[in-house]
Amino acid sequence: MNNFDCVVVGGGMVGAASALSLANLGLTVALIEQHQPHCFDKSQALDLRVSAISLASEHLLTQLGAWPQLQQWRLCPYKRLGVWEHQASYTEFNADDIEQSHLGHIIENRLVQLALWQQVKNHSKVTLFSPANLESFTQSANEIAITLVDNSAVTEQGKTQKITAKLLIAADGANSQVRKLANIGITGWDYQQSAMLINIETQTPQQDITWQQFFETGPLALLPLPGKSELGGYASLVWYQGKDEIKRLSSLSCEQLQVEILEAFPQRLGKIKVIDKGAFPLTRRHANTYQKNRVLLLGDAAHTINPMAGQGVNLGFKDVKALQTVIASAIGNNECWHEPNILSRYETKRRKDNLLMMTTMDSLYVTFGHPSPAVKLFRNIGLAMANKIPFLKKKALAYACGV
Ligand SMILES: Cc1cc2nc3c(=O)[nH]c(=O)nc-3n(C[C@H](O)[C@H](O)[C@H](O)COP(=O)(O)OP(=O)(O)OC[C@H]3O[C@@H](n4cnc5c(N)ncnc54)[C@H](O)[C@@H]3O)c2cc1C
After folding, report:
1. Please, where are the H alpha helices in 182-311?
2. Ligand 1 neighbour 47 (Cβ under 6 A)
3. Domain boundaries, the chain
4. For position 381, what pLDDT does the model report?
5. 299 Cβ inside 6 Å of ligand 1
């Protein structure tokens, strides 16, 4: 088949979820992904790239049929979230505050993608092209013509294929090629800091808390990971620092890094052993528009956010849900779901929310990085007050969890 209702470019977490959510409405979908994720095996070490998956994202993954598989593989629920700068300003959020059993789960990105791919491969309405690359596309009044290179073919150059669709979805990440080909500009900047992700064994068995201590040089965070290690449990550390310092830390051996971690991180970390590490740049990008006629941007293709509060993919999943809702209601009302004026409802639903979260993260980034003693006092009083005003605490927590 060469004619589809929708083509999704990018089969990462957001693209795969989007393909499934539209196929569940009865639409035919082509999903194009350049790299195939490695299969899961229980004996594999934990991946470095993990995400805090919110309650709202868990609901979406459940609706798409991916959640039971993730539960069978591996994930780590967390019930508490601790934040502080000065010890006296320590604030702890608890799932009990919003009548939930947990606040979210830490899950490896690849497993979320794989669990979604399992559903994609079993769905009669989705055709997966992978490994395959988008090459180009052209838009006419009624459809989009897409050229892709299918690298699963045996020829060395890959096989060029042409397909058509009524809607093209860009879920091809922060450097979206679709966004560039559609001539959609972005605003954004690179943050002064980078982040180092470090997988460790912890003396403490599997934990139910994720915590973050703020420093002017950037936060230090712990995300609990699933399973038992020789030492006790596992966790992922996130070390935000200036780019040069991250470069220096990256050049250290695991043993040397371990010594530096024990000096820099709060004492509550306890005894640890470093098992894996990697550095990632931090960027902020926001597409000037999420729509160009029949092209829509979702996930990191539309927005990349400071990962300080672990919201990036959760915003992407909210995009997926919003688009599904817009198209479902258009179909329900006998409207032509793929007309650009109907598709524009997606941007109306999502742009303000994404911008609010991006701005909130940037305000926190600037406030907590400010060296002035007055600002330091103000932010610590702010944190301590948040702890004392249950209504505010509850509201902030419900927003972060997406409930
Ligand atoms: C250090 C760090 C920590 C983070 N922690 C969290 C967290 O705790 N919680 C959270 O919610 N978010 C977190 N994020 C953000 C999160 O990782 C991203 O928001 C998320 O991965 C975006 O998913 P995506 O599917 O939109 O894009 P991607 O994951 O980038 O997927 C894009 C896909 O498109 C494919 N592709 C690209 N171009 C083409 C092409 N031309 N043809 C075919 N395929 C193509 C790529 O191979 C890829 O598979 C973090 C980010 C960083 C940097």
Report:
1. 243-250, 254-264
2. no
3. 3-41+110-187+284-365
4. 72
5. yes
- Is the CB–ligand 1 distance for residue 169 below 6 Å? no
Q: What pLDDT is stored for residue 154 in this prediction? A: 64
Task: Identify the segments of the chain with pLDDT beneath 50.
Answer: none
Does 266 sit behind a cis peptide bond, omega within 30 degrees of 0 on the bond before it?
Answer: no
Each residue's pLDDT tens digit, 198-234: 999 999 999 999 999 999 888 999 999 999 999 999 9
In sequence order, what are the beta bridge partners of 91? 83
pLDDT value of position 155: 65
Fold type of domain 3-41+110-187+284-365: FAD/NAD(P)-binding domain (3.50.50)
Residue 302 C-alpha to ligand 1 middle, in angstroms? 11
CA distances from 107 to 145, 179, 186, 226 (A): 36, 28, 30, 9
Q: Which residue minimizes the CA distance to atom 53 of ligand 1? A: 280
Residue entry with tokens 């791919």: 117
Ligand 1 centre to CA of 262 (Å) is: 30
pLDDT tens-digit map of 238-268 = 999 999 999 999 999 999 999 999 999 999 9
Exposure pattern of 278-302 as b/e (b: 16+ CB <10 Å)? Answer: ebeebbbbbbebbbbbbbbbbbbbb
Looking from the CA of residue 13, the nearest atom of ligand 1 is 25
3-class state of residue 170 by DSSP: strand
What separation in Å is there between the alpha carbon of 280 and the centre of ligand 1?
Answer: 12
Protein residue with least CA distance to atom 50, ligand 1 = 307
> Would you state the structure tokens that stand for residue 258, as one six-digit string?
């371990």
Atom of ligand 1 nearest to the CA of 178: 41
The pLDDT value recorded for residue 156 is 65
Cα dihedral 84, 85, 88, 91, rounded to 10, equals: -10
> d(Cα 141, Cα 345) in Å, to the nearest integer?
19
CA 54 to centroid of ligand 1, rounded, Å: 16
Q: What pLDDT, on a 0 to 100 scale, did the predictor assign at position 306?
A: 86
pLDDT at 347 (0 to 100):
98
